[in-house]
Give the backbone structure.
Amino acid sequence: MKLNPHTNNTSRSSGAMQSLRNWLAPGLGVKRWMLIVLAGITFLAVGLAMLLLDFYRTESTNETFLTVLNYASLRFLPRVIRVLIFGGIGLGILAYGIRGLNRAVLGPFMRPGQTIMDQIVEFRRRDRGPRIVTVGGGHGLATLLRGLKEHTRNITAVVTVADDGGSSGQLRESMGILPPGDIRNCLAALSNDEALLTQLFQYRFSGAPGLDGHSFGNLFIGALSEITGSFEEAVAESGRVLSVSGRVLPATLHDVRLVADIKLAHSANEIRVQGESRIPEAAGHVRRVWLEPNDAPAFPPVLKALLTAELIVVGPGSLYTSILPNLLVHDLLSALNASRALKVYVCNIATQTGETDSYTCYDHVRALEQHIGEDLFDVILCNDNHTPPLPTGTEWVVADERTLSDSRAHSTDLLDEDHPWRHDSIKLAQTLMDLYYERTGPLR
């Protein structure tokens, strides 16, 4: 089949016009700089015109020169047509030069398959996104962040530092630093580079003496803590390395331990368990958890982020070992109460063995309110898709009648079909943004 050259030319022309319209779209921050460039070129052209005019007057007696100048300046055409011709040529050369300059300067930073315009539009859209603070830890918080980063760059993840198990626990004991595991997961989730660097950060050694069970990211943060002299600076530098959209902050910089009173199953006895990693292993009903010391101050940037936030999301994550350790930091909770942001609690999809066995959404909310007080949240977000089968020993966290009778409750499909015990990051993030814009309106 032969292609029509006229059709191809028309297609290219319409594509060029659409590209020009995109560059002139409002909110990109491009037009102001283009006007400044044009103003500079205009002044340069005026100066050059003055020079040529002076040269023209000097050489006015030279007939050969005047003849060549008359033809070169198209003086045989009406003035309006000459202005349009030279103006059009000038704008074309200017556009071609700016395009080439952009490609030369931005080429090393371009993502495959995306144009400069695509990246500028995407950057500006996310840069104007709402200020969101997420509170939690573990894989649930990382899942949430992975979805939210597609909507805004203004994200602050507040992460628990009560972890004392696995690689994080070992580094905490041997190096005297805060546990980096949950922070590492959040940094990886917020990274704009989903390729090799993030995989390296999440890589876990196995079989190597002295390194078995450690992740590269944990060791990296530990080494940076030694180099920079502070854990918070190490986290900030790690974020720069991973090109993170937003910030990841520890709830407190103090060395805190999580302690729980647990009522044993099939017994009236109650035991006290120290250590976040040991609480699920006790296999009983958690009655109460607290931090030791219980007066650890919050990290000051966390308080500022909470007080200036437009949306605060608590959860998803392990109720007693990921979410509550953050909220038990007293001045963090005070800032959360004082914030005027829309506050959403995201309930888990499935129960966690040894921690929330047989819990409903209502049980999750009740446990939170028993520890931190009532009426903290504006919205309680629950999953209502219970179709796929769950792993043995795990149950659905159901939005029962007591939950649905609460005016704050909102139920929708949040399920990851491939891993039904987890949230789908895209569904969860979109639902949160819909709830936020429903309260505030899309124009701010």
Notes: The mean pLDDT is 85. Strands lie at 132-136, 155-159, 247-250, 257-264, 270-274, 284-292, 311-314, 342-346, 379-383, 409-412. Residues 89 and 424 are 53 Å apart (CA to CA).
